[in-house]
Amino acid sequence: MKEPKKVFNHPDWEIYWPSRITLWGFLLAWFFVGLIIAFTMILARIGA
Amino acid sequence: MLGIHPLDILVLFLYFIIISVTGWWSSRKIKDTGDFFIGGRRFGKFLTAMLSFGTGTHADQAVGVVSKSYSVGLSGIWYEWMWLLVNPFYWIFAAILRRLRVVTTADYFRQRFNQNIAALYAFLAMVILMLNIGTMVLGSSRIIEGLTDGAITFFWGVIIITLLFVFYGLAGGIVAAALNDVIQGVLTIVFSFLLIPFSLAKVGGFHALHQKVQATADYNMFTLIAPKGITAFFVFMIVVNGIFNWVVQPHVIPSSTSCKTEMDSRVGVTYGNFIKRFCTIAWAFTGVTAIALLPNLDNPDQAFGAMARLLLPVGLVGLLIASLLATIQSTGAVLMLSGSSIFVRNIYSVYFEKGKNEAHYLLAGRIASLGIVVGSLAFAVLLPGVVKALEIFMVLPALLGVPFWMSIVWRRANPASTWASFIASTLVWMYTEFMTEMPLPWQMVSYLSAGLIVGFIVGSITKPLPKEQLDPIYKRLQTPVLEEEHLESDLVEGHSL
Q1: Domain boundaries, position A33
Q2: Distance from A37 to chain B by nearest Cα, in Å?
Q3: Residue A10, in any domain of the structure
Q4: CATH for B192
Q5: Which parts of B410-486 fold into alpha helices (H)?
Q6: Is some CB atom of chain B closer than 8 A to the CB atom of A35?
Q7: What are B143-157's pLDDT values in tens digits?
Q8: Per-residue pLDDT for B337 more than 50?
């Protein structure tokens, strides 16, 4: 198992850099958020 | 009869028979509470998605969004969509929660801190569940009042709905709720979108809708950011608050951790919730269309029911009422029994009656269930409306969400810092809510800052918990699911892979 790397090299803090799956999945989810908002805005403008 | 067509009443009875038979059939497959709460950690992406959607979606949320959109325009969508911008974070949080390898949130607090913090969480969870049930009863009674044109009044709606879920729950219906929830999930999606074509046809198309709705307001009712109430700052703060709120809601850990792998959890939780965000669009448009079709409603909470009555053909009104009642029957029973189980497991059997037999705790659970129902009814009667209930629901879980996240990222978080953070944020929220006229987003800034600052100060000056207690938890968080060989002997009692 690959050891995850800490963001702050301090014994009290347990914050780690995200893995590639975490990062790309997070960005993809934001893409879906944008898609849903854009869809709603387009729907709201029909007939305006 | 009852303000609805006899054919609708027939549909209502048929639906109840079908749902009761499927409920009884599915209940035979579930053998124990472990199967019920986390499905033996056997769920895949699809079931996790449906579970996340089903457990997190209630009719009262549709009522809330329709009500708010009826009052302020399309921006009313943010009363549920606040979770849309939190949704991408589920991709990260679902994996963290799955790696904790616990069954309930109280179990995590017990392992990370101690039994007293678990009891504190249990108490708050019970209040959250009572608020959940109360809001559900309140919202659904408003729909029924609207659907029957007042023939079934709000008061009688509350009584009928409460009796339905209390009898279903106490008769042992909790295990039947899973399949029932899946059926309700599908019907919720169908009913969310069903009103749109009927309402557009009635109002005369999109162009006529814009003209009629705009004539009622002095600002753009079709913008997502409105000048009144729901501003960009409001949206930003409810997203920040949502990050603290979501993780400690009682249903979140069971539904995020019922799957086999981390990827199942990430995909199921994130995209199951996206289905709900999609339904929210339909709810908001229903509210805006109601401005054009029903401009003079006494109570905005009635808008959803009144729209359904106005637009749906005979038969579908009965199906909508039946679907609504069956949702409440299963979800209300689950919430009620979850609350009583949390009480018996974390408070009663620890502080009041230790080491009693199963029958004793079963009876205590049933009495606690009735206590939870009384509390829920108090919420339903005392709350001024569904929107206010949603606002309180935004706040309560976040009060313990702050120490939860501190405990995940900071080793010095200890029981003293958790109590201090919780008390500080609660006092600040109560002061801003009851003693000032402070708007909700500024309340959120105040209580979240208070919780973080006080928790950090107290954690910094008090003794940290022993390394032997903390190391297994942080090691679990760094160990991917299905790579448990790296955990060696760190798993202790109460953990479940």
Answers
A1: 18-48
A2: 9
A3: no
A4: 1.20.1730.10
A5: 415-434, 440-461, 467-478
A6: no
A7: 778 777 778 888 888
A8: yes
What pLDDT, on a 0 to 100 scale, did the predictor assign at position B177?
A: 58
Distance between CA atoms of B188 and B350, rounded to whole angstroms? 40
B362: containing domain: 6-29+36-389
Q: How many distinct structural domains can be found in chain B?
A: 1
Query: What predicted TM-score, i.e. pTM, was given to this entire model?
Result: 0.83
Nearest CA-CA partner of B125 in B457, B439, B372:
B372
Taking an 8 Å cut-off on Cβ atoms, the answer to whether B479 and A44 are in contact is: no
The contact set of B with A (CB < 8 A) is 74, 77, 84-85, 87-92, 95, 205-210, 222-224, 263, 266, 270-271, 274, 277-278, 281, 284-285, 408-412, 464, 474, 477-480, 483, 486
| Domain assignment present for A42 | yes
Per-residue pLDDT reduced to its tens digit, A7-37? 888 899 999 999 999 999 999 999 999 999 9
Report how far apart, in Å, the C-alpha atoms of B312 and of each of B144, B149, B193, B199, B305 are.
14, 14, 12, 9, 10
Inside any domain, residue B143: yes
* Weakest-pLDDT range from A40-44, B253-257, B337-341, B485-489: B485-489
Does the residue B463 lie in any domain? no
**pLDDT over 80 (residue B27):** no
Number of domains in chain A: 1
- Indicate whether B454 belongs to any domain: no
User: Contact at 8 Å (CB) between B238 and B445?
Assistant: no
Residue of A14, A32, A48 with shortest CB distance to B409: A14
Shortest distance, CA B209 to any CA of chain A (angstroms):
8
pLDDT range class, residue B36, cuts 50, 70, 90: very low
**Does A1 fall in a domain?**
no
| Dihedral over Cα of B219, B222, B226, B229: its sign | positive
**ipTM score of complex:** 0.94
Q: A29 and B208 in contact by Cβ < 8 A?
A: no
- Residue B490: partners with Cβ closer than 8 Å, 6 or more residues away: B471, B472, B475, B476
